[in-house]
Amino acid sequence: MKKRLMQFVTGTTILGMAMVAGAAGISTDVVKIGVLTDMSGVYSAIGGKGSVTAAKMAIADFGGKVLGKPIKLISADHQNKADIASTKAREWADTDHVDMITGLLNSGCALAVQKIGTEKKVISIATGAGSTTLTNEHCSPYGVHYVYDTYALPKVAGGAIVDTGGKSWFFLTADYAFGHSLEKNTAAFVKAHGGKVLGQVRHPLATSDFSSYLLQAQASGAKVIGLANAGGDFINAVKQAREFGIVQGGQTIAGMLVFLSDVKSLGLDVAQGMNFATSFYWDRDEASRKWSQRYFAKTGSMPTMNQAGVYSAVTTYLKAIKKAGTDNPDAVMKTMRGMKINDFFSINGHLRADGSMVHDMFLVEVKKPSESKAPWDLLKVIKQVPGDEAFMSLAEGSCSTVKK
Amino acid sequence: MNRKLWAALFLAGLAAPFLIYPVFVMQLLCFALFACAFNLLIGYTGLLSFGHAAFFGGAAYVTGYLVKNAGLTPELGVIVGTLAAGLMGYIFGILTIRRQGIYFAMITLALAQVIYFIALKAPFTGGEDGLQDVPRGMFLGLVDLGHTYHVAGKPLELNLYYFVFIIFCIGFWIIHRAIHSPFGQILKAIRENEPRAISLGYKVERLKLLAFVISASLAGTAGATKSLVFQLASLTDVSWHTSGEVVLMTLLGGLGTVLGPVVGAFTVVALQAELSAFGSWVTVVIGVTFVVCVLSFRRGFVGEVLEKIRTRPPGQND
Amino acid sequence: MHLSYQVVLAQLMLGLNIGAFYAILSLGLAVIFGLLNIINFAHGALYMLGAFVALLGYNELGPLLGMPDFHMNYWTALLVAPLVVGFLGVLIEKTMLRRLYKVDHLYGLLLTFGLALILQGVFTNYFNVSGISYNGKPEILRGAVNLKFMMFPTYRLWSIAISLAVCFATWFVIERTKLGSYLRAGTENPSLVQAFGINVPLMITLTYGFGVGMAAFAGVVAAPIYSVSPIMGSELIITVFAVVVIGGMGSIMGSICTGLSLGMLEGLTKVIYPPAANTVIFFMMILVLLVKPEGLFGKEQ
């Protein structure tokens, strides 16, 4: 019995080795795009089903076909867990022959998927993750970082707030890589603009009670309380700051990563006057308004920068396939790097060798309730910052695939 | 009959990667081993640990870190991960082994939270992002576990698969031996009637502690292997949800049955894979499974089947 | 961070706020455990449910009834949520838990764990996990009170007061009244109490209903402070378990005191070493287990 089993083992192994196929380059007869996003967790309002809708719109607007082949969309929930994202991406690459994966709302998931993309030659376009490591120490020839990163956001917001008088800062930082990186970069820009950092407190992720931390921020006497956190943590902190009379006491709150949905959830009454940086606002110009209203008609809410980013990313990817005449990932990446990316989302955009999609960023302010004329009339654009000013330069970066 | 069943299962295990997506099968095997290790504790000592994720995930981190940063070969990585989980099991055991029932469950749960905290905070774990990019390495320095074969256009990671399969078989065999050894019999005796076992002169606490350490070690083996398969160790591995899942797997398959945990693990993992597109409904389905299982078939799938066979009237035996 | 006495006092007050929630939740667990011998894993989910009753009553009930301007106010929610959830508890006990009294008590833990997953999963599917604001805070409880060493929000003061009031009322009923003496006797020797003509099964059912009602009450009290979210109970319950282990499940007063003091310990940790704030209770638990394994107020089993 055992002998026969051994034969079977060796037999199958040899069979397997013999059948190693060298047939790469011939793509399946369909271009498959996967949207891997958070459908049920803390970031579901930022991406989630809205991102899937945006991707669907992009494919439909492109005509449903590229180079005569149909475009297919698949989607799944990564639950913000790197292991689920990695499992799913691997399965998509192995069994579904997916060509491009987008969405990816947190850094852990984006890193995991980008890693698998490198191994399996699948393009990944992260629209929600913030970490700059995606385009630096973990950069990949198949990885694109599309919407924002933890360098560009504080560079745009931090400097501007110091320039308008917010000279002393105290940070409330979510105690994980994302928060640390946001805090570190903001602090650097604050100092560069002549401001100073009085202190910081690191809170666990998903904190429900910020009161202790807020009191420490209050006691510091800092002019600006910088929130290096996101989503639920950001909302809770802002709400409770109001409860403890912090804003009324003359301190300002500055969110380092704020989404339109956060402002909507807080309400103008609580959020008014806050400055923050964003890649996109629906009411920014004619093109953004036009697209966003179509999106609104389908989903019932205005798009966040991630959702708009998914549409733009999918469209750019499809355009590149058309231009390159193939869906071979190397060729598509090369083509994308040579394209100008200008649409309702991205202004003066171009994809760099390290994977960073550099485009103009915006400093916005939350309107006062009296200024708002419609339910989604929430922000006003104060300043447009050119992409090359906002994003980290290639020289500063540490991507190993970029020749300096 | 038993021998034939085992042979058939073994063959199925060998052929599986050609029939089913291999990464999925490897995931099944890792969780099946995890559940079997867990079952050794609850099924044979009656102790319900609600913190077994600490061993599973703890070992995943240790193995992942050493293979990635110290250049350990995968088999050494798994062995060290197993030992680390065993050590953790020993420490947990000293703190908890005198407690019983619900207290034991709650204390293991809380201790596992401490491990979760460490995984979140320690400098080598990668915090929220997890420990990524774990290489699969060269087995014994000779066989590349990362190698992908292409059979009929399907990418198959056969080296890795058989590596995982062998680990599973060894782990399963150890558990099987432990259960059927005098040690296993004494454990059963303790579970049935602890005072009597004490009066017979058995050092009950020491035996329970040993069972706990073995269980923790093998849970560690499963976690260590998983970190090589998925090339990452993450907070999910150490979270209390994972502890809850392994309880469900074991319960669903059948507490104290040899094959039950394997069946249970396959069911739960397959369920999660099938339902993954439905977001939080997975949680609901798992919750419902728990409730139904507790209310109507506490013996689990395998346990119920065995009970049917046992209680069948003698005349109908073939 | 400079630790002046004002800072310490302020953090202790905030800790007391958290501690009051720990106390009321661990007390509910202890009451249920006393009579049913199960640990109610669904306690956190039912706390969440209580908060959602308040939230939905305020936001959705009016439109549902065709009266868009109608909001179920906070005070009504304080009464209605515990009743709704308590009734659900009665149903759970009558249809499910009851069938498990003859088997190992661990099955009760597993069943309630399953129930917790169901509740959390269903709510996650319909509501955003990052939380929804409850806007029904009554006018009278808005604003802040000057405590000399800090400005303390009135609502938080109220939440401490009402939680403690409920805790002590429960303590009084169980330790000082005739009803309580039945309960305690039922804990010690159910068959004897049954023999005296007291309907023990009914008493068990109502105890479970009361215990989870307390969780719902805590949920309503928490709603205006924290965002109401489907996962608000799931992490909390694990912490409360640790509180229960530290206190031991022997005494009502033990649960209350442990809850309050651990809340304050957490409050202090938030100034001394903030990242450990979520975990300090678990470290405390290990310490207590090493020194006094049965818990601070527990009786050796």
Question: Largest sheet of chain A, if any?
Answer: 6 strands, mixed
Compute the number of helices of chain B: 14
List low-confidence stretches of chain B.
none
What oligomeric arrangement do these chains adopt? heterotrimer
Helix percent band of chain A: 40-55%
Task: Write down the Rg of chain B.
Answer: 20 Å
3D architecture notes:
- The complex is a heterotrimer of chains A (404), B (318) and C (301).
- In chain A, helix 3 packs parallel to helix 4 and helix 5 runs parallel beside helix 6.
- Chain A has helices at 2-18, 48-61, 82-96, 107-120, 152-163, 177-192, 211-220, 231-243, 260-266, 268-271, 286-299, 305-324, 329-338, 387-390, and strands at 31-37, 65-66, 69-77, 100-103, 123-126, 143-145, 168-174, 196-203, 224-228, 252-255, 275-278, 340-341, 349-351, 357-358, 361-366, 379-385.
- In chain A, strand 2 (65-66) and strand 3 form a beta hairpin.
- By secondary structure, chain A is an alpha/beta fold.
- Chain B is mainly α and 318 residues long.
- Chain B has a domain at 21-240.
- Chain B has a two-stranded antiparallel sheet.
- In chain B, a hairpin with a 3-residue loop joins strand 1 (138-139) and strand 2 (143-144).
- In chain B, helix 6 (158-180) packs across helix 7 (182-192).
- In chain C, a hairpin with a 4-residue loop joins strand 1 and strand 2.
- Chain C has one domain (14-291): ABC transporter involved in vitamin B12 uptake, BtuC (Orthogonal Bundle), CATH 1.10.3470.
- In chain C, helix 1 runs parallel beside helix 6 (154-176) and helix 6 (154-176) crosses helix 7 (178-188).
- Chain C has helices at residues 5-36, 43-59, 61-64, 74-95, 106-126, 154-176, 178-188, 190-195, 200-222, 234-247, 252-272, 280-291, and strands at residues 144-146, 151-153.
- Chain C has a two-stranded antiparallel sheet with strand order 1-2.
- The B-C interface holds B 46, 48, 95-96, 98-103, 105-107, 109-111, 113-114, 117, 121, 240, 244, 247, 251, 279-291, 293-295, 298 and C 33, 37-39, 96, 99-100, 103-107, 109-111, 113-122, 124-125, 238, 241-242, 244-245, 275-276, 278-279, 282-283, 285-286, 289-290, 293, 301.
